[in-house]
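Annotators were shown the component list below and the corresponding predicted structure, then asked to write short factual statements about the assembly.
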Amino acid sequence: MPRIIYLASDHAAVELKAALADWLRGEGHDVRDLGPETADRVDYPDYGYKLAEALAADAQATGIALCGSGIGISIAANRVAGCRCALVNEPVSAALAREHNDANAIAMGARLVGLDMAKACVEAFLATPFAGGRHAGRVEKLTNPPG
Amino acid sequence: MPRIIYLASDHAAVELKAALADWLRGEGHDVRDLGPETADRVDYPDYGYKLAEALAADAQATGIALCGSGIGISIAANRVAGCRCALVNEPVSAALAREHNDANAIAMGARLVGLDMAKACVEAFLATPFAGGRHAGRVEKLTNPPG
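Structure shown to annotators:
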């Protein structure tokens, strides 16, 4: 089933972002690349926030956040309560992020994860439904942080 | 050098939390276990928020956040702007989290990472200084999220 998939990165992950975008478009998804377009230096929080706000505004959409390690952009994305972004480097975590946490984004590090592993993570993420049940109340708490 | 280290988890990671706490106390650190104390079911966001707020209140402290996969509690912890929590499962990421992101917490999954790997991640995290420089402005942006 075609999905709306937003991608965002920093300069360190522009190539991985382009490769994943091409692949996902080839799979028939509606891919929306939030940038950057070049490898000029940018700040990962800017793109993490952009992605998270796009996801907060569209409950049906999925996001992929990329930077050198995946760490910085995942921290930024999770600053926005409507985004639940799981930093992953293998498909077991990508599936658990959907099943237990109803994550709407995964983050990966372009300097740590190769293209085939990144694709395997995205496939597991897209294929796995949220389990609901006892997990639903916990996810609800993630949407209502303190302060 | 002895450090103040807060630990928090959910029920799935109580054993790993206790093992890490014992080890870190043995290493001379000031370990503060924020719970839970038993394996009775709890919600990971409650403990993620508790840890993040402790770190937001003490710039010198370090945190370790644990749940089944590490995903849920890392998302929760990063809801609090004073917390920069990196989900890791190997020491390269744990070191990069300090060097590039000035992370003050790491999250790990008790069902995915064994005790020796968790210790290696904590050791890398505690041993690595923040690089500053071009990274400082990005970390500053993590402290000032939109909205």
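Statements collected:
1. Chain A touches chain B through 41 residues (CB under 8 Å).
2. The two ends of chain A are 38 Å apart (CA to CA).
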